[in-house]
Amino acid sequence: MKSRIPGWRLVASSLLCLFASGNLIASNASVPTGTEITLQEVLSRAIEQNPALAVYPYRLRAADAAVIQSSLGPQPELSVEIENIAGDAPLNGVEGAQITVALSQLIELGNKRDSRSDVAHRALDTERQGYAIARLDVLGEAVTRYITLARFEEELALAERTLRLAEKAEQATRRRVNAGAAPKADLTRMTLASRHADIIRRRANMERGRASQQLAALWGQQGADQLHPASSLRPLPELPARNQILDQLVQAPQLLQLASETRLHAAQSRLATARGSRDVTVSVGARHDRVEDNNTLVLGFSVPLNLNNPNRGNIARAESQLAASEALLQARRIELVAALDTLYRSLNLLREELGLIEDQALPLARQLYADIEKGYRSGRYRLLELVDAQQEQLNLERRAINLAAQFHLQRNELERLTGLPFSQADEQEISQ
After folding, report:
1. Measured between alpha carbons, how far is residue 52 from residues 96, 134, 139, 220, 412 in Å?
2. Which residue(s) pair with 340 in the sheet?
3. Domains of the chain, first to last
4. Are 338 and 246 in contact (CB under 8 A)?
5. What is the pLDDT along the chain (432 residues), one digit of tens a residue?
6. Do 209 and 148 contact (CB within 8 A), yes or no?
7. Burial degree of 66 (CB within 10 A; 0-12, 13-18, 19+)
8. Using an 8 Å Cβ cutoff, are 203 and 176 in contact?
9. CA angle 330, 332, 334 (to 5 degrees)
C-alpha cells in the first residue's frame, strides 16, 4: 500500500518556504516516468525552468542599470573661443586674435539628481514586484495542474472500482440467468454496463495521462504521461479565521504591486516638479590677447529666465497619473475584500457539503448497495434496483472527488490573492 500525504502546501506557503530558504532545487533533469512527484518538487521545477520567467532577469538588469545612470550628474564642458581673426593688416590672420579657454559646469538645482535617482529606484522596485507576481502566477498554475492531476488520479481509481463492480454484477447476473431465475436480457444489460465501465476507465486513464503531460510542460518536459501526485485530495486542510485573512490582505501581491506603482508615480511627480526649477551654469577660464600679449581671468554664469514653468505640462500629467494610481489601489483593495469574502464562504460550503457526503450519505449508499446486491443474488431484488443502488453510490463518490478538487482550487486562489501561507507544514501520512 502506498503512503500519501493528505492536505496541500499550496502556492503561497510553498512560495514563501522555497524563497525564504533560498534553496530551490536545481532539477534540470526530467522526472522519471511512472514515479510519484511532490508538490514542492513541482514548484521547484516550475520556478527554475519555466520559459515565461526567463525574460525577467534581463529586465531587472536593465532597471538596475537605470539606477546607475540616474546617479550620474552633468559633466563639465571645455570651450575654446577665438576672436579678432582674419582682420585687416597689420593684424591679419591670427596676429590680433584673442583666445579664451574656459571650463563650464551645469549645477542642478531643485534636488533634480535625488529625484531622478528616486524614480529609478522606484522603477526597479516595481520591476521586482512584477517579477514576484509572475512567479506567483507560474506557481499558482503549477498548483492548479497538480490538483487537476490528483483529481484525475482519483477519478481513474473510481473508474477502476466501477468496472470491478460492473464485472461482479455481471457474474452474479450470469449465475441467475444460468439458474433460470432471471431473463437473458438482464445478462445483456449487465454486459453492456461492463463494456461502458471499461470505456469510462480507459477515458479516465487518458485524461490522467493528459493532466500529467500538462503538469510536466510547465518545466519543459515532454512525454511525461505517467507522473503520479504524492498528495491526495482528502482530508481537507483547515482554514484560518476570516479576520486573519483580512488582516493579511496588506500582503496581497496585487496590492503590493499597485502600491509600488503608486510610489513610482509619486516619485515621477516630484521629478517633474524638480525639472521645472532653474539650473545655473558657471564657467571659469583664461583669455590671451596676442596684441597686448597679456592674459586675463574670465568668469561667467548663466541662468534661464523661466518666465513660465517650462515643465508645467509634465507636472500636470504626473500628478494625474499619481491620482489615478491611488484611486486604482483603493478600488482594487475593495474588490479583493469582496473576492476573499466570497471565496471564504464558498470554501466553508464545500467543506460542509463534502462532510455530509462522507459522513452520512456515502456510508448509507454503500450499505444500501451491499444489501441490495446480497438480496439480488437470492432473488429478493430486481436488476434495476441493483443498478440504481450502484449508480447512487458511484455518483456520491464522484461528487466527493469534485468537491474536494474545487475546495483545493479555490483555496489555491485564496492563497494566491493574499500571498501568505495559511496551510500548516505538519502534514501526517496515512495509508490508502
Report:
1. 70, 8, 12, 11, 21
2. none
3. 3-73+116-236+330-431 (1.20.1600.10)
4. no
5. 343 433 333 443 444 444 433 333 344 556 666 678 999 999 999 999 898 888 899 999 999 999 999 998 899 999 998 887 765 655 566 666 788 899 999 998 888 899 999 999 999 999 999 998 899 889 989 999 999 999 999 999 999 999 999 998 899 899 889 988 888 998 999 999 999 999 999 999 999 999 999 999 999 888 888 899 998 899 998 888 888 888 878 778 888 888 888 989 899 898 888 888 888 999 999 988 877 778 889 898 888 887 788 888 988 999 999 999 999 999 989 998 999 999 999 999 999 999 999 999 999 999 999 999 889 888 888 888 988 999 999 999 999 999 999 999 999 998 888 876 544 333 333 233
6. no
7. middle
8. no
9. 75
Where does 218-311 have alpha helices with state H? 242-247, 253-275
CB 19 within 8 A of CB 44: no
Q: What angle do CA 38, 41, 42 make, to 5 degrees?
A: 90
* Bond prior to 32 in cis (omega within 30° of 0): no
The C-alpha cell of 94 is what? 591670427
Q: How far apart are CA 408 and CA 130, in angstroms?
A: 26
Residue 231: enclosing H or E segment and its boundaries?
Answer: strand 231-232
Q: Which amino acid is at 187?
A: L
Q: Which residue has the cell 596676442?
A: 290
Place of cell 472527488: 401
Cell numbers standing for residue 45: 521545477
Cα–Cα distance between 93 and 314 in angstroms, integer?
A: 50
Minimal CA–CA distance to 41: which of 210, 233, 228, 238? 228
Q: Please provide residue 318's backbone torsions phi and psi, each rounded to the nearest 5 degrees.
A: -65, -40
Contacts of 12 (CB under 8 A, 6+ apart): 415, 416, 418, 419, 420, 421, 422
Cell of 233: 485530495
Report how far residue 219's alpha carbon sits from residue 231's, in angstroms, rounded to the nearest whole number.
20
Task: Identify the bridge partners of residue 81 per DSSP, sorted by sequence position.
Answer: 100
